[in-house]
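The data layer described in this paper is built around a simple, fixed record for each protein. Because each token names a local backbone shape, the row as a whole describes the fold. We quote a single record here, exactly as it is kept in our systems:

***
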Amino acid sequence: MAFKAALNSLYRRQFLRSFAGFLGALLTFPRPRGTRAQSLTGKLIRRSDPEYDAKRKGLVWQLAKPARRPGLIVQPGNVNEVVAAVDHARAQGLKVIAKSGGHSIPASFLRDDGMLIDMLGMQDVAVDPDNFTATAGPGTWGPTLLHALEPHDMGFPVARGGSVAIGGFLLGGGLGFNPNTWGIACFSVIGADVVTADGNLLTVNAQQYPDIFWAVRGAGPGFFGVVTKYHLRAYPLPGAITTSQYIHPLDNHAGVAAALEQLVPNSDHRLELILLLTGNPDEQAVAAGAPEQVCIVNAVAYGTDAEDARALLEPVANSSLGHNPLQKTEYEPSNLKILTGETGESFPHGRMATEGVWSNSIAPVIAVLSERMRQAVTPVTTVSIRFMGNTRLPEDAAFSLIGSTNILSVLTWQDAKDDNRVAGWLRDTMSVLEPFSLGHYINNEDVVSYPERNQGSFTPDSWTRLRALRKQYDPDSLFHDYFGV
């Protein structure tokens, strides 16, 4: 029990830090397909290099390292080196895929053979405070973008974890801060610089190449190009960000669900509610006989000032969540940097797996997930349910599937011998969620083990359009498709 409690305590300190602590001018340089490749530059890592395997494994953020081995890894430092890499791949008949921070849990960017373009070195950020916009390279960490915006009293819905770069996060949608007001993060992409299969560098937006722009906003790991820069809309920082947290025994999940059934539909859009079903983070209390598993409700208010933020949180405090919890902390001042955590420190270290669904259910899914928690197979198992008060989706985005609840199971363990038990637990959990599922959020899915979840992350019309655009802009299939598709 002490080992389990210690890991839970570590999990809380690291994972919950995210919660309490989480259009330019057109640039095009056309060349006919098949022209002579440019000289390949940037840092090159070949299979024959002594450091290849260490570098390959280092691209994967978590400790479970797939055996897939690209033939060549290119780490460009500027856009010209990206263009040269794409030209070289086309001339040599190499399939191409790009990655940024490597935060994909199944590492779907790791493919056998071909070329992997590692975009982590492209982290330039420029802020235009007069127009509330910014540009940022795909390798930019979320905290780096926040640090650049903060002196101008601006923010952006980066990921709730400092170890997440914006590249893949935005390409797959991006469920970040203040989603009920700021929306899914990719909706704040107002343009992008993209290298296409022809080796052309295009700036795409709502007026220029609007179909590619549509795909940039949510296509995920099957995008048919390489994004070298994002053009972003930023937002005025809230005058005060304040948090409250309530911890109840897992056995009280029905009471917690009843409170959330009342709070979620009636909450101001500036209040964000997140439920965690997880291990009790209080090690000493567990040793003294407290429940080992708990329900943790995190409430984040994005107010105009401290008084307004407190008013947003008061309905939560006055609900049954505030009555006789195991523990509570209320009305704590915070900011986006505290909530995000620093790069590389916002999640526990180990082998990790995640699965989840979009749903419109609250109490029924909390009930079935609480039962699954009682059958947890790892010391650190957490089910997160984020409640979405704003499910409106723009038409000009590939991101097209959403629900009022986002459910995500996150498992962390250390020993590879437990891999099959973890996979079985997740498989069974997804099975009991199926009656409540609207579909998937591609950024959270194990699309390697379950490639059908790529298609299941889009509406049928959006999926059909994505397939047609891939044929149009990458007719020779230079870029890797969705894994398993």
